[in-house]
Amino acid sequence: MVAGGPPVPADDDVRFLVRCEFDEFRRYYREAGWLPDVGEVEEMIIRRDPDALIVFRVAGRIVGHAIWHGSSTREMRAGDPRDANDTRILEGLLGGPAEFAELHELWLVREYRGKGIGRRFFDFFEAFIRSRGFSSIIYYAFDPAAVDLCRSRGYREAYGVETVGRMSYVLCLPLLKGPGQA
Predict the structure, then answer these.
(1) N or C: which terminal CB in the chain sees fewer CB atoms within 10 Å?
(2) Interatomic CA distance for residues 117 and 57, integer angstroms
């Protein structure tokens, strides 16, 4: 938990919004200091499907974001094959070849960490992904707080995929069908 900073926002003060004007997102990204700029892959994902970007707003200010995309055990994105180890881990978690929603990137401005926004985001995200027809979420995480949060939500896990030069946990949540869904 990050000490100090803004108070814990009330549930109705936090908004998770699908889509954001890209230049506004880029300004937030640069100001937050994640990297000098949005990565090429992340920009491609967002430009292909603007619904792939979810921003977190408190009092109108962007304080976090998530980028997601449809994926499969064989390809990260259409035409971008996975390596054999990644495919093996994913098929083990999913019970064989499958399609799923991949939570590609998740960031929250440091001063808002430890205030329950991550839990609220996952409540929103899991319902959103279910409404899009996906039956599973995969999330590659290396941050201990993110891994702990996913464990508390029932995500199954595997370990052993190298991403951006470090080992990541591969977390998987099978989504239960909601009322009226086949």
Answers:
(1) C
(2) 10
Residues 6+ positions from 130 with CB-CB distance below 8 Å = 175, 177, 178, 181
CA-based R_g, the chain, Å = 16
Q: How many CB atoms lie within 10 A of CB 12?
A: 6
pLDDT in tens, 68-111: 999 999 998 888 999 998 999 999 999 999 999 999 999 999 99
The DSSP-derived string for 113-134 is: TTSSHHHHHHHHHHHHHHHTT-
List pLDDT tens digits, range 104-114: 999 999 999 99
Domain extent listing, the chain? 11-174
For the stretch 18-40, pLDDT in tens is: 999 999 999 999 999 878 899 99
- Report the C-alpha gap between 74 and 78 in whole angstroms: 9
- How many whole angstroms separate alpha carbon 169 and alpha carbon 157? 6
Q: Assess contact for 54 and 16: CB atoms under 8 A.
A: yes
Instruction: Give the pairing of strands 99-108 and 136-141.
Output: parallel
So what CATH class is 11-174?
Answer: alpha beta
**pLDDT confidence band for 177 (50 / 70 / 90):** low
Whole-angstrom CA distances from 78 to 48, 53, 92, 95, 162 are 12, 18, 21, 21, 21
Predicted TM-score (pTM) of the model is: 0.88
